[in-house]
UniProtKB/TrEMBL annotation:
NAD(+) binds at Y127, Q188, N211. This is Histidinol dehydrogenase. The active site is at E324, H325. PANTHER family: HISTIDINE BIOSYNTHESIS TRIFUNCTIONAL PROTEIN, HISTIDINOL DEHYDROGENASE HDH. It catalyses: L-histidinol + 2 NAD(+) + H2O = L-histidine + 2 NADH + 3 H(+). Pfam families: Histidinol_dh. It is an enzyme of class 1 (oxidoreductase). It comes from Enterococcus larvae. Zn(2+) binds at Q256, H259, D358, H417. Belongs to the histidinol dehydrogenase family. Substrate binds at S234, Q256, H259, H325, D358, E412, H417. Pathway: Amino-acid biosynthesis; L-histidine biosynthesis; L-histidine from 5-phospho-alpha-D-ribose 1-diphosphate: step 9/9. Its cofactor is Zn(2+).
Amino acid sequence: MRWLSGTRQEILSELDKEKYMRKADDQQIEAATKEIIDNVVSSGDRALFEYSRKFDQTELDELEISQDAINQAYQQLEDSVKTALEKAKENIISYHKKQKQYDFMDSEKSGVIRGQLVRPLERVGVYVPGGTAAYPSSVLMNVLPAKIAGVDEVIMVTPPSPEGVPSIILAAAKIAGVDRVFQVGGAQAIAALAYGTATIPKVDKIVGPGNIYVATAKKQVFGTVGIDMIAGPSEIGVLADAQADPAFIAADLLSQAEHDVLARTFLVTDSKRLAEEVEREIAEQLITLPRKEIAERSIVDHSWIILASGTTDMFDIMNEIAPEHLEVQMEDPMSRLHDIRNAGSIFLGAYTSEPVGDYLSGTNHVLPTSGTAKFYSPLGVYDFVKYSQVSYYTKEALAEVQADIALLARKEGLEAHARAVEYRFKEEDK
């Protein structure tokens, strides 16, 4: 792990340098992704089969996975796993139902009605990543808020493999209520969802995390469809004081480091003793970790121990980092909530480890990364609805404000705007 210390500004300056240095060759990735999207647009399903052979080393007979295959995967799933997924589903639903918003109308002035309509999207696409691990929890996290919002149809895409899509992913799709599942991944899956093919229907919005090509493809199709966010590698920040348990902190940092060699971890503390103990604990815990190679590379290349001069600087630095996951392992952590401005998901206290949110608390684990928690929010029900404004004026109500509207329109040089109101009273003015 790399150590940083000094003034708040010196520390933030070093982190900014790292942010620019870790950028991938964006132009090369952008060009490769655009080529894939263009090919899917022009060749449709044929391009999807070709990319499955090229990228996934898989010869597919069909793009869509049948309901029989999904049902069979569910039946074969161990009862204990079913129970855990159902428990997670229950908690996700109970949490996200509180995010629902409703229509409103007001009539504060005589002759005037204003309102807002909340309408669910008709069809959304959910990307579930494959690769080095299977993520049934991501199926639940992406699909259930859409279902709560009232989305008519949820389409799921996930990368195939020579062994097929993992049964646990298909079982999770059934538990979450996915309408259709397609075994296609990568930028080509995003293109298919955005533009449609003979087999895969076009959607209104695409959600879910993926690799750099998936993220780049989402960025390129935005505008044709909506997207949730452009997610980068996973990350965690831990704020800890001298009373924190170094073994707990080390375990939590490694829980994110094992995701990806590019995953980032941050420990921000004002206790050098604690920092040294955490570093020793990480080295010891790595020895028996099954995904040691991935986690170790992440820790060596993308992890920091930051020594701050006090509590105020600790929070200021972490607010600038704006981590995807933020743990507060400090005395009386609840009282520190008002000091947190930027974080995707916040975990308070020694016994609220980040995996609690990943799997079972019901809060969403699709979160803004790479500092975007400064302006993005976790995935929620609000991502699957759109809002329409409503206005109604009687003739009498419009008469009261017609002069103001016409004045403002002419100040903006928009004469037709002014006349559009005035023509309604032309006869009275004669």
